[in-house]
Amino acid sequence: MKFFVLTLFPEMFDSFLNTSILKKSIDKGLVEIELINIRDFTQDKHNKTDDYPFGGGPGMVMTPQPLASSIEYAKERSNNGKVIYFSPHGAVLRQSMVSNLAKEQDIILLCGHYEGIDYRIVEKYIDLQISIGDYIVTGGELPAMVFIDSVSRYVEGVLGNEESAVEESFTKPLLEHPQYTRPRVFEDMEVPEVLLSGNHEKIKQWRLSKSEEITQNNRPDLYELFKKDQ
């Protein structure tokens, strides 16, 4: 099995890949891990990979171009691997999901940062969104390590197959609305017009509506909690 990890911080994996059972599995050729630096693919003259969100709000959003280019590069190097993005929007990682995904030959893991990634990347390139639990971490690198470690245990010849799952609750029972950043049009996909309107009340209403829609579709258990609080 081979993992392609798309990250802004490949150095975070140094210790992880050189210790314990995973290192032995890599040395035996049972598991392969290729780290791909997203920043290497940016076409921005300042080497930027993030920008301010359309519609306003705190933080920055990862721009679509370097993400798309790095994903396409990984897909060319893999056997058309499944693309997974670690996000609170995803289904919570469970052992049944781990065992099923362990049957894949190649998996591409996208590690987001900041306020997330431009949502057009989710719509066009992501096959599966996964959350490692109902809490927030700074970036996708730690979830990627958790995922690699748990899935690798199912690869034939790798020792260990134990389950350990701990869940916590979100502070709010709604998932975040989609985020968008420059450019306004990317691969014929446009940013929703309401985010460019400057009407803060309409933007607020749109974001709440999209949050409810995403939560109802992706996490109906959380949506039920939200409805009870109304």
TrEMBL record:
GO terms, biological process: tRNA N1-guanine methylation
Chief localization: cytoplasm
Listed GO CC annotations: cytosol
Domain of life according to the entry: Bacteria
Molecular function GO terms recorded: tRNA (guanine(37)-N1)-methyltransferase activity
Binding residues for S-adenosyl-L-methionine: 112, 132-137
Domain tRNA methyltransferase TRMD/TRM10-type stretches: 1-224
Pfam families tied to this protein: tRNA_m1G_MT
Catalytic function, reaction form: guanosine(37) in tRNA + S-adenosyl-L-methionine = N(1)-methylguanosine(37) in tRNA + S-adenosyl-L-homocysteine + H(+)
Enzyme class: transferase
Keyword annotations from UniProtKB, A to Z: Cytoplasm, Methyltransferase, S-adenosyl-L-methionine, Transferase, tRNA processing
Localization in the cell: Cytoplasm
The enzyme's E.C. designation: 2.1.1.228
Oligomeric and partner information: Homodimer.
Family: Belongs to the RNA methyltransferase TrmD family.
Known role: Specifically methylates guanosine-37 in various tRNAs.
Protein's recorded name: tRNA (guanine-N(1)-)-methyltransferase
Organism field: Alkalibaculum bacchi
